């Protein structure tokens, strides 16, 4: 009798082999109509500081505002981080007309072909669809380059701007986790949005 490890697992049409994402080498930068996306470098610290130091921006990211030392430390760490196994994170700088105006993030999540999406933009760029455009490019990277099967976003229910980004991307609300976390000392509710590789438009 074969050992469980040698039994082939069923593979759905279009799924990556064995339900696992690839260790791919993307071609940078990713380009969209208005944006370029590329992995961060340490020199992005000053640009990231512009929004990551703002309490309003980081409020729903469940992270404290950065000081300059934190910006430098984080960008150094992210720039050197691998992206080839569960738990790894790749952070992309979003450029418009040569200036870094935002970030997107993919986290290699547990489970077959699962990844988490994140995004944040400099506040003065809001309301132009740039976050949606950057996030869509990041979803395409996740599905077509890395071969992830499902990408999800965890969003504080009160973060309506982020919920609208997820909805514009065609992501489906899959869960509402009532009072599953604490923000600013009060219970907060998280909604989970997700998209499958075959659903990206
Ligand atoms: C979440 C966040 C990135 C959303 O930014 P945003 O500016 O609302 O999103 P977009 O750049 O996609 O712009 C969408 C808005 O521009 C409008 N818009 C204008 N031109 C557009 C275009 N060409 N395409 C799409 N939308 C366009 C849309 O109608 C929309 O307005 P609405 O939300 O009032 O309906 C931003 O609020 C942010 O950085 N927040 C802090 C970090 C954060 O919370 N991240 C998410 C954690 S889960």
From TrEMBL:
Domain N-acetyltransferase: 35-198
Annotated Gene3D superfamilies: 3.40.630.30
Alphabetized InterPro entries for the sequence: Acyl_CoA_acyltransferase (IPR016181), GNAT_dom (IPR000182), N-acetyltransferase (IPR051531)
GO molecular function, one term: acyltransferase activity, transferring groups other than amino-acyl groups
Bias kind Pro residues: ranges: 1-16
Region Disordered: start-end pairs: 1-23
Name of the molecule in the record: Protein N-acetyltransferase, RimJ/RimL family
Organism phylogeny: Bacteria, Bacillati, Actinomycetota, Actinomycetes, Micrococcales
């Amino acid at each position: 009798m074969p050992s469980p490890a040698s039994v082939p697992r069923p593979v759905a049409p279009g799924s990556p082999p064995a339900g696992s994402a690839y260790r791919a080498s993307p071609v940078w930068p990713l380009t969209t109509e208005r944006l370029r996306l590329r992995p961060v470098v340490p020199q992005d610290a000053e640009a990231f500081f512009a929004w990551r130091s703002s309490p309003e921006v980081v409020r729903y990211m469940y992270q404290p505002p950065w000081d300059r030392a934190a910006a430098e430390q984080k960008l150094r760490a992210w720039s050197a981080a691998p992206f080839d196994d569960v738990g790894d994170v790749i952070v992309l700088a979003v450029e418009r007309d040569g200036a870094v105006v935002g970030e997107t993030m993919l986290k290699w999540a547990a489970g077959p072909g699962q990844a988490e999406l994140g995004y944040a933009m400099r506040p003065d760029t809001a309301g132009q669809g740039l976050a949606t455009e950057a996030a869509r490019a990041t979803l395409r990277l996740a599905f077509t380059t890395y071969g992830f099967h499902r990408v999800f976003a965890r969003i504080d229910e009160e973060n309506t701007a982020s919920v609208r980004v997820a909805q514009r991307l065609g992501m489906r609300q899959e869960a509402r986790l009532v009072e599953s976390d604490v923000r600013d000392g009060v219970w907060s509710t998280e909604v989970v949005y997700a998209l499958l590789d075959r659903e990206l438009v």
